[in-house]
Amino acid sequence: MSQQFHFKALFNGNEWLHNATVEVVDGVISAINDGGDGTEYLSGKVVPGFIDTQVNGGGGALFNFAPTREGLQTMMAAHAQFGTVAMLPTLITDDVGVIAAAADAIASAVADQEPGILGVHFEGPHLSVPKKGTHEESKIRPISEAEWSVYERADLGIKMVTLAPECVELDDIRRLVSAGVIVCLGHTNASFEQTNAALAAGATGFTHLFNAMSAFTSRAEGVVGAALLADHAWCGIIVDRHHVSAGALKVALRSKPKGKLVLVTDAMSLIGTNDSEFEFFGRKVIRQGDRLNSTTGELAGSHLDMLSAVNNTMEDLGVSFEEAVAMAAEYPAEFINASSLGQLKVGSAASWVQLNEDNTKVLTTVIDGQIIYQQQ
Description:
Helix content: 25-40%
Number of domains: 2
Number of strands: 20
CATH topology of the largest domain: TIM Barrel
Strand order of the largest sheet: 5-8-9-10-11-12-13-14
Low-confidence stretches: none
Mean pLDDT: 96
Largest sheet: 8 strands, parallel
CATH class of the largest domain: Alpha Beta
């Protein structure tokens, strides 16, 4: 199928193009040309679609409690309203049966090319109890053969696992990497040395930098210090004004090479709804404004969407709009090796976001040339 789209302002990931015509064949950009006289151009500005590598829920569905195709569709529809064109639905620490059900739902979605579903992120259950955050302590455990049977599946698309390196063997990390899994370090009380050993074994990412990990101090660099010094590793950051201070994020921005900080939402089920609370492993999570707390006190994920993350990053960290967009699109695409996403060029997926002039609203979200969301 051949399509044409006419854009008043298009940021392709490198530069702005004005009055551009994008030709799309079967969901892939085949040409980008200057528009002709008399062409009607879409208003606002078009940028590469956002990629969320840590998203627990949306639209009333939490992946742990809705590990189904319908749950994935609900999550994707909620986040598409805010510019997300691709995600790794994230399952937090849970029973083996839930992990298996989630994997089956992901495999079905990947096989059918469900719009926006790239694969899966298993955040736990192989975590540090002292740094568990809101994860259910009774379900935290070492890797068993039951989990290996999931992690080594070849039908899950892009696979990511967050673990605490002090709670697994280095050979486990090597085995995960050999199975095509992107290994991230998080919810960990590891030492600087243990963290560096995990990186040497093949880990390439850090989950929500600064949060739920051993801190940087004057005599113990901790996981945070290792993350900031590991030039090759990517760090997810939650820029919701609750998880991390702007100053700490600015330190990370100065420390990490350009392209290694990735915006994530860590969003829970309330995104895209007017609900103010939900049940969570025998507790409740309550929303006050845009902050989520468990009734046991901890921050419990976020009430953050990707467009808000982009705007917060501009305002709080002083980066340009273009760089904030890259942190939400190009850099996560590089992190998970999703080479067709993150930029808008010939050969890229026709997956973009049309924003209004002041970046406060998504007008349309397009995935592979198909309009997934359109503002009413």
